[in-house]
Design goal:
By secondary structure, the protein is of the alpha/beta class. Helix content is about 40%, strand content about 20%.
Amino acid sequence: MGGSEKAGRRAGARQRSSSRELVRPPGERAFLVGIDYRVQTQPKTTTGSLTRVAQAARDNATNAAGATKAPSVPEFSAEESLEELHTLAISAGAEVAGEFLQHRDKPDPATLIGKGKLEEIAAAAASVSADLLLFDHDLTASQQRNIENLVHTRVIDRTQLILDIFARHARTREGQLQVELAQLEYLLPRLGGRGIEMSQLGGGIGTRGPGETQLETDRRKIYRRIRHVKEQIENVRRIRAQQRQRRESVPVATVALVGYTNAGKSTLFNGLTRAAVLESPKMFATLDPTIRAVTLPSKRRALLSDTVGFIRNLPHTLVTAFRATLEEVQRAALILQVSDASSPLSAEQDAQVERVLKELEAEKKPRLRVMNKIDLLPPKQRDSLRDDATTVHVSAAKGIGMSTLLDRIDGTLSEDAISRIHLRVPQKEGKTLAMLEARARIYSRAYKDGLVELEAEAPESVVRRVRDWVVGSPK
């Protein structure tokens, strides 16, 4: 991507930011700082992403050397990453006052981007009356302290921003406990390096939760709190495991929705189950797990589980804290991987989802790709879409493709298998006949000598309940 094109994208992002600010309620003014590393010096520890140009150059060099390499995983460019930070900041209630993208060969160990560039950013932030700097990278405690000393403004890194959004959106006690544990574990190694942020009480971005109660002066308090929260979460896991065992004692499959944040999972969940889960364009609007029953075309029932959205570089503390919730993904019979078909970053987002599924050891689960939001595509592109054995195209908001999706889910699940049966049920068994009407596909019905003869397809759970009236063996 050329410099002029990048500048144009940044200008476009700033223009969009200004138009959005006109309708946004007043909040803290944030100045965004991103970094484009031309050379990835530390593949696993460096927080910046390779640009597409750098990635292509590295791939070409590897191929030229004759090395065997796996297919490259799509990566977010620095501009795309900064635009995502913009969306995260708005989700946290901030007004984006400006942004800055620094190009460097490698990170500065003391200040990440260098003292001179920080002074330039500090002046730019002051000129737009910014209340805080948001870095699109993780900062060490010493880096955060050094930056704050230079810019004299509150500094927040990307992980802290995501934790703050989680704290805003957690509604249930379980979700609040999981967020608090992630915040405490993030804060613990930084107690000695907190600067401006920890010297004052706050109610703004990055200061929600447990971070203001003198934790920097008493590590024993935070350790005790972590142990207490972990015990409570363990109780939640135990209760959830008991509930799961009860569910698994009957042949009802669980289908887990996963996907990048804001891919439309909650809208799809509501469309399939007629539930009323919060639908919001903000990132991480859904944190608290929800499970609802859905009736499939075969009249089988399945349980659909809505889960927290994934994101690039999802903080490990969050994956750990939300493990009790994400166990629903590990134990699911089928994973619906929801993607935003209208997003130009769909491939990169899917790659990030794949990484989290691997971390959860769920990457080998049966999976069905659901390309959502096709109503936002141009008509010509939408008309060219074709479903296949592993992919279904839908618009959850408009109800497009939902019946096809249910058919595909029905055909994929093996739990509570369907069989063809012939029945002779006494007419006086009204309750049984009503149950068959509701839970089975009836192909023929005849009345003779006080009996109702039925030809039907029914799940195994239904066949067991009417076995006394089955004629012959189920097919």
